[in-house]
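Listing S7. Sequence submitted for prediction.
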Amino acid sequence: MSRTDPFLITGPALISFSGGRTSAYMLWRILQAHGETLPDDVKVVFANTGKEREETLRFVHECGSRWRVNVHWVEWRDTLAGFEEVGFNSASRNGEPFSQLIEKKNALPRGPQRWCTQFLKVRPMFSFMRACGLGKPGQYLEAIGLRNDEGHRILKGLERAERDGRRTCYPLGNGGVSKPEVLAFWWGADRVYETRTIPQGFDLDLPPLWGNCDFCFAMGVGIRRERAKQMPSVTGWWQAHEEATGRTFSMRESVAEIVQQVAAFDKTDDLFADFDDAECGAWCPTDEVAE
């Protein structure tokens, strides 16, 4: 990585593209720093769990096609390779990789055993880099899309990388980029989703409350209530796995309890306004792998 330009990446390197606005902006800045063409040993990788929203998949596809950059789509597989490379048309859309992992482990990720990001996103990306002949973690740089105003996450990510022998960088953090700059790139002067101007000609067609995982149990209960209120169908897959295993994803409340809580309130009630970004990816410092 350049000492003068945090977006000038020296390979071999992995650019972790989560599918959200923030990591997409990081990718765009990296492309601009490289004259819109990345070196051959700098790979852009998006890991699909099968629980990403369709809007996320379309956004990832548009970033690749509009910016003329090869975004490699990977999914976890219980094979020697550890992944399969897919694309927009062939990507899983019904949680298949996640369901297969739950069946293999006969468990749900929860609490200190929250292994979903590690297995479904981080490991497939690492396996892809190995298959490209770029070595193992620590032998290449990992560019991760955390902003300057997410400093606590960056610190935790750096601590874990040092512990695990990985080389990570945070171009947005090093470049002093915060949320307003990201939103200005996608929405111009607007700061409200409903009135955004879309200066780039395209955007992730999801309000900020929606992250790339449709009902991520690591988000606050208020966010999950709001998602269940806005789009009741997203809870079905999660609730089915809880009922099938007799366990819960969250250590606080079950999906069924959230559904019941939402049903108890008037549809116009605005009780669930807590907000946080919900882009998971190789940065996630709380995943602890349980073999």
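Caption to Listing S7: primary sequence and predicted structure tokens for the chain studied. Residues 271-278, 281-291 have pLDDT under 50 and may be disordered. The two ends are 33 Å apart (CA to CA).
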